[in-house]
Design a protein that fits this description.
The protein is built from 15 helices and 14 strands. It starts with a strand and ends in an 11-residue tail after the last helix. It has 414 residues and is α/β, with parallel strands linked by helices. The strands form two sheets. It has an eight-stranded mixed sheet, sandwiched between helices. Helix 10 crosses helix 11. Strand 1 (5-11) and strand 2 (15-22) form a beta hairpin. It is globular. The chain is 37% helix and 19% strand.
């Protein structure tokens, strides 16, 4: 029996998202979420997608830690005949947020890889520790099974130094690993390839601006399948206006808040990461609620309109900047929660860019669909697309390519 299944784990500080996929046909067998780990009100939501057990099952109650969470996941999978002890399970693929400069491809996890992920914690203090916990727990449950790390930053390691370097003292930057790393890499990789497929062209022949717009948001310039620039930097704080993050800002604002506002570094960190962006501007980080407030008018409309306009202004600036970086653009692709579902955002972001060959067809843009689609008119020189992202499939694909039947030891990067 050929092992063709891959379990994808995305371990957060208090949650575990998971999907089980069969790479023989890219089908999903099960998916779920464990949240509020460590609390009395922990919840496990599990959805089998095959067999007689189809239908979501939910349970609540204390789940002490990630080890308990993964054991609970394994039990749910076993109920559907999909247990972790199955000989059909080929590997477990882990989303790891920060791989620094060292990890440029998916990597089979060994002790040296774990040590490097640990060493990167200072530049990803919110994410890498949780990712590590998930890996260590999964190794305990299936020590015989290949574990693969797929890094959010890997897709962006192709950026030239002119894009990745900040203009600060080189010695200081190197000592403290300060550079633009970029994030959402699995999404940008998947969407850039899927956009080329939508255009019926090879990825190496297509230049794409990818706009990953969710509560976290990032843009990338992709030339011939390789990232040449991206909006997030040392951390996910830089770049576009996001749900709760400020995005681009004069660094002197931090010094001003410390000297004049008397704020501590922790308070400023919380302000910029959790109390800024859309929520800081208007009190809402949900684009649907912001649009509702705008459309209904009234006392709440003005702040919502200002937040929307700032969001769009920043987005439009990045489209123009990456058009300049690429020189020739074949497509602009919208993806993630806002990008896939908020037609007014797409329309507003492209409006006024007709001289660049960009336009949105109102009727096409209004269509809601889970399929990749063009929303630009036939005459547009540059395609505008909506391409649903699939980070779990991307992680599973990269994992299976590394450890599946076609894998050879020379493919490893450790």
């Amino acid at each position: 029996m050929t092992a063709t299944r891959v379990l994808v784990l995305n371990s957060g500080s208090s949650s575990v998202k998971y999907q089980l996929l069969d790479m023989s046909d890219h089908s999903r067998l099960a998916m779920g979420l464990v949240e509020r780990i460590g609390e009395e009100t922990s919840r496990l939501k599990h959805t089998p997608l095959v067999g007689d057990g189809a239908g979501t099952r939910e349970s609540t109650g204390p789940i002490a830690d990630h080890a308990a969470a993964l054991k609970a996941v394994a039990e749910e999978l076993a109920k559907d005949g999909l247990g972790l002890d199955s000989p059909e399970l080929a590997a477990i693929g882990h989303r790891v947020v920060h791989g620094g400069k060292f990890f440029t491809r998916p990597t089979v996890i060994d002790d040296s890889v774990l040590a490097e992920i640990q060493r990167l914690i200072p530049v990803a203090p919110l994410h890498n520790p949780a990712n590590l916990t998930g890996i260590l727990t999964a190794r305990t449950l299936r020590p015989d099974l290949p574990q693969v790390a797929v890094f959010d930053t890997a897709f962006h390691t192709t950026m030239p130094e002119s894009a990745a370097r900040y203009a600060i003292d080189v010695k200081t930057a190197d000592e403290h690993r300060i550079r633009r790393y970029g994030f959402h890499g699995t999404s940008h990789a998947y969407v850039s390839r899927a956009t080329a497929k939508l255009l019926d062209r090879a990825p190496e022949d297509v230049n794409v601006i990818v706009l990953h717009l969710g509560n976290g948001a990032s843009a990338s310039a992709v030339r011939g399948g390789r990232c040449v620039d991206t909006s997030m930097g040392l951390t996910p704080l830089e770049g576009l206006v996001m749900g709760t993050r400020s995005g681009d800002m004069d660094p002197a604002v931090i010094f001003h808040l410390m000297r004049v506002g008397g704020m501590s570094t922790d308070e400023i960190d919380t302000l910029l990461n959790k109390k800024s962006g859309l929520v800081g501007l208007c009190g809402d980080n949900d684009m649907r609620e912001i649009r509702r407030r705008i459309d209904e008018g009234g006392a709440d409309a003005a702040s919502a309109r200002l937040a929307f306009d700032i969001y769009i202004h920043r987005l439009k600036k990045y489209i123009g900047a990456y058009y300049a970086v690429l020189g020739r653009v074949d497509a602009v692709a919208f993806t993630a929660g806002v990008g896939e579902n908020a037609a007014p955002v797409r329309e507003a972001a492209i409006a006024g860019l007709e001289e660049l060959g960009l336009a949105v067809d109102g009727e096409r843009n209004a269509v809601r669909s889970g399929e990749p689609r063009l929303i630009s008119p036939e005459y547009a020189r540059v395609a505008v697309a909506v391409v649903p992202t699939d980070e779990e499939l991307e992680i599973a694909t990269q994992t299976y390519a590394l450890v599946g039947p076609s894998h050879t030891p020379s493919d490893d990067l450790t």
